[in-house]
């Protein structure tokens, strides 16, 4: 209980300082350090003995080092490479050509907010092939984001839809889908087709419709609609073939993917560097100036550096905060309390959804909460004589939906950094559509499964 009290006070402190517009990276990093220091005081371990520096207070900085090392080498490199690629596409004019060509058929739809709804649907379908939420988010920022801006919606609206595109781990390739199917004792394809889709369809449609309404409302309220609309002069554009360059990494990922039966696989970072290499060849044949081509690559590296300063640092701070919540035992206390609640099936399902969603918003990770709770479902379901899937799907969906509301989740931070919008502003825009998605998840699970 002490951990819960400390965590609550730290969360309130962070919320107050962020509201007062203190630097989020520093505020969240400090909050994580306070939580870890509190864990040391109450005697909770914060690091494995073999990794310790020999003093628990010095271990605070060892934790930061380990988190920074893991994130910079993994998710951080992915975010930095995409941001660098986006900057280079803008520098050579490829993004303007892509927008100029791609926006024409979409302009036939009078309302850009209807396009936003369809953009969400497209992104959610892509999630079945690109299982990383942050990976999908940054890819859509390189392709979908500039088109949405050119149609007249705000940066916040476009970013909110892109963050939401990964709000359901849909399909048999998702790790959480495999976990739920295994827990329920059924094949993952059976889980996807006969159970997950049944609930996902009404949830996805609800979110799509609400995004169109909610983003229009916020844009009108903030007078942000059309502020970033891109006016393109055809005479200033590079050759039309350049339109293929911004989506080339995405195409390579799909071509070299098990989803299309390929035995080869290309990572997101590799795809970005492949796209950069091909773009350099295009630039050489257009300019015939190798020195200028090499000079232009600095834009790619500058983009990587800016992503580290604004995005990756926030990811590391968020990870430290989540580590601190776990270290003081706040998450375990909430989990154990829900285990012993003794409610009926419906009440227990709603309780588990609420706890999982709350833990995900606070920590930014849905997987941790789902993996902690999944084993409870068969036991509770057997006690009430119901199919465990009735509880597992709401648990899975509550975690992934809440991930796209959390201002410290990796996908939120990555998209916000590239869009140059506060993650808290994006969370404000995703809260209503995805909150409604949580409610529809509960209703659909109880009625349709």
From TrEMBL:
Name the domain of life this protein comes from. Answer: Bacteria
Q: State what protein this is by name.
A: Anaerobic c4-dicarboxylate antiporter, DcuC family
* Primary location class: membrane
**Intracellular or extracellular location(s):** Cell membrane
Keywords, in A-Z order: Cell membrane, Membrane, Transmembrane, Transmembrane helix, Transport
The UniProt similarity line reads: Belongs to the DcuC/DcuD transporter (TC 2.A.61) family.
Show the GO cellular component annotation of the record: plasma membrane
The portions of this protein that span the membrane are: 27-47, 68-86, 106-123, 130-151, 157-180, 192-214, 241-261, 268-285, 305-322, 405-424, 430-448
């Amino acid at each position: 209980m002490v951990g819960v009290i400390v965590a609550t006070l730290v969360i309130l402190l962070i919320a107050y300082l962020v509201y007062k517009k203190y630097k989020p990276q520093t505020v969240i990093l400090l909050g994580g350090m306070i939580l870890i220091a509190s864990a040391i005081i109450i005697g909770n371990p914060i690091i494995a003995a073999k990794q310790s520096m020999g003093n628990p207070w010095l271990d605070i900085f060892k934790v930061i080092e380990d988190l920074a090392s893991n994130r910079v080498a993994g998710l951080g490199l992915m975010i930095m490479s995409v941001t660098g690629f986006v900057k280079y596409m803008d520098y050579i004019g490829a993004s303007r050509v892509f927008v100029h060509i791609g926006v024409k058929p979409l302009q036939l739809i009078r309302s850009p907010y209807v396009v936003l709804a369809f953009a969400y649907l497209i992104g959610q379908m892509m999630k079945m092939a690109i299982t990383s939420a942050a990976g999908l988010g940054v890819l859509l920022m390189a392709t979908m984001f500039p088109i949405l801006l050119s149609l007249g919606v705000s940066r916040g609206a476009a970013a909110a839809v892109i963050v939401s595109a990964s709000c359901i781990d849909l399909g048999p390739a998702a790790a959480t889908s495999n976990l739920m199917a295994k827990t329920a004792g059924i094949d993952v394809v059976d889980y996807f087709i006969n159970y997950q889709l049944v609930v996902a369809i009404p949830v996805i449609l609800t979110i799509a419709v609400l995004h169109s309404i909610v983003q229009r409302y916020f844009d009108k309220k903030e007078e942000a609609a059309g502020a970033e609309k891109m006016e393109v002069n055809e005479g200033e554009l590079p050759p039309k073939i350049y339109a293929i360059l911004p989506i080339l990494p995405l195409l390579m990922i799909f071509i070299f993917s098990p989803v299309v039966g390929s035995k080869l696989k290309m990572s997101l970072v590799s795809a970005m560097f492949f796209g950069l290499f091909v773009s350099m060849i295009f630039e050489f044949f257009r300019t015939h100036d190798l020195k200028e081509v090499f000079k232009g690559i600095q834009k790619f590296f500058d983009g990587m550096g800016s992503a580290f300063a604004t995005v990756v640092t926030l990811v590391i701070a968020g990870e430290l905060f989540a580590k601190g919540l776990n270290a003081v035992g706040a998450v375990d206390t909430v989990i154990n309390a829900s285990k012993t609640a003794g409610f009926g099936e419906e009440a227990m399902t709603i309780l588990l959804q609420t706890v999982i969603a709350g833990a995900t918003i606070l920590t930014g990770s849905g997987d941790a909460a789902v993996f902690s709770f999944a084993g409870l479902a068969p036991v509770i379901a057997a006690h009430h004589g119901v199919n465990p899937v009735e509880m597992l799907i709401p648990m899975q969906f509550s975690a992934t939906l809440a991930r796209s509301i959390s201002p410290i989740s990796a996908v939120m931070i990555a998209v916000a950094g590239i869009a140059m919008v506060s993650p808290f502003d994006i969370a404000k825009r995703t809260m209503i559509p995805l909150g409604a998605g949580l409610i529809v998840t509960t209703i659909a699970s109880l009625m349709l499964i």
